[in-house]
Amino acid sequence: MTVNGWAQILFYCACVLLVTKPLGIYLVKVYDGSVGSLRPVERAIYRVSGVDPDEDQHWTRYAAAMLIFSLATMLLTYVVLRLQHVLPLNPQGLPAVVDRQAFETAASFTTNTNWQSYVGEQVMSYFSQMTQLAFHNFASAAVGMAVAVAFVRGIARRGVEAKGRIGNFWVDLVRGTLYVLLPFCLVLSMLLVQQGVIQNFRPYLEVTTLEGAKQTIAMGPVASQEIIKQLGTNGGGFFNANAAHPFENPTPWTNFWSMFTIFMIPSALTYLLGRMVGRQRHGWAVWAAMFVLFFGGVTTAYWAEARGNPIHAAHGLDLATTAVNPGGNMEGKEVRFGVANSALYATVTTDASCGAVNSLHDSFTPLGGLVPMVNMQLGEVVFGGVGAGLYGILVLVVLTVFIAGLMVGRTPEYLGKKIQAREVQMAMLYALVFPAAILTMTAVSSVAKPGLAGLNNSGPHGLSEILYAFSSTAANNGSAFAGLTGTTYYYNTMLGLNTLIGRFAMIVPMMALAGFLAEKKPAPESVGTFPVTTPLFVVLLVSVIVIVSALTFFPVLSLGPLVEHLLMGSGVTF
């Protein structure tokens, strides 16, 4: 580890902290209707869509609208991908996407996962990239923000007069897209173009290299998709190499802006939480818990990668950092980014359910690769996806105050609302669906012939590749240990289903919890009320998050990356 590397990491942390309050204030104004610069456009959308913007929906109606919208757009994407060969903006004449891959891709992009088992520049036309994949990058992010704001409304509303009503899904969806995602992407995409990210509709270029070989260079409208994949924590790259490709991420500044935009909205939503519930210190306490977990992860990943691989050292490679040698484990990393920015990027992208990568996670050391995996297995609550990170950690906040209430022997309360049986049931259902999907599908795939047929590695690393894939898809992340061959009927189907479970089977109980909280009368605080604005709360929340994950995933992690780390120290490889 170097001073320069730590300086870049700390600079990134400072920038995220600085943007949290101003952007958080803006988000509050967007969702309470105070921002009206595009009000005529907004009203026109409601009229054309037949939406009553004044309707305050019950949580069941809100959830149903979200599910119907997601299903309809997913089916549309499936049809377009299957008909890609007859649609316009296909200068390369790419064929239709095969059925199994069209299903997985439609499910993946609908759920904000963006798992890609295909080579983007060889499979997707410009039309598919722009009208379907980029569309879902906007829509899935807007859905996540809408659901998070609805959950916060459920916490903030007081008394039975709310009757389980948490807002209007269609209004929240439109406002998040119109006032947040579109304007930010318009400005920031220009910044990427200025730095060298391409944006065109040219056919692919055929060139002759200096050695006389023929090479095809892919073109396309990259900048417009690149920025929303980061800002919306989607992660799906225009090119197969994702953010390691020089057309997607050409300079250190584009690398920084990529990471910064990933955390912008998730960080700001914690300030929105504090402002909407009238407890700003609570919002900062939630932010602090997220930051503690993030900083612990990036420290571990940076240490593990800077330390290097002893197997490389045994073969004569110099792992020391000098003026002419980057040192550490540079396998699978871009020289222009180095160890520090690769470790930081891997931590950020898996904390925030983004899935974009600027290095090959499969080539990280076992402990370096463990960090991205654990980040996802925590439930993507370390800032998390846009919206998804906030509502995910709020469910764990409910569990935290429930545990605190048990410790003092009284009915738990959260911001003046008693947490009773049905709230705990919904929180536990949310918490159990996630590991059940990951562990069940990993177990089946590790013994089933179709599952084993996709492995390029044996032993603990092979198990890690399967575990990473199902952790990534259930967490709606989308990054991968690329040693797993996912382009089979088995994996396309299983991973596609896993993305749907990880999104919708967890959103529905969370929305029920929001509705239940909205119905409750406020209870006056007393000496027995557990404060949710103190360092003690932060410590307890972090402990609950870590313990729940450790108890659930530690056995399988001990068979994968942990045992691989021990074997690496002894010089054993698979």
Structure commentary:
The chain is 64% helix and 3% strand. The protein is mostly helical. α1 crosses α9 (252-277). The longest helix is centred in the first third of the chain and has 31 residues, at 126-156. The radius of gyration is 23 Å and the shape is globular. It starts with a helix and ends in a 5-residue tail after the last helix. The model has no long low-confidence stretch (mean pLDDT 90).
List the main descriptive attributes of the protein structure presented here.
574 residues; mainly alpha; two-stranded antiparallel ribbon; two-stranded antiparallel sheet; 6 strands
Secondary-structure blueprint of this entry?
Layout: H1 3-31, H2 39-49, E1 57-58, H3 59-82, H4 99-110, H5 120-123, H6 126-156, E2 165-167, H7 169-195, E3 205-208, E4 214-217, H8 222-231, H9 252-277, H10 280-307, H11 310-314, H12 338-351, H13 366-377, H14 388-408, E5 413-414, E6 417-418, H15 421-445, H16 449-453, H17 459-474, H18 489-519, H19 535-559, H20 561-569
Antiparallel strand pairs: 1-2, 3-4, 5-6
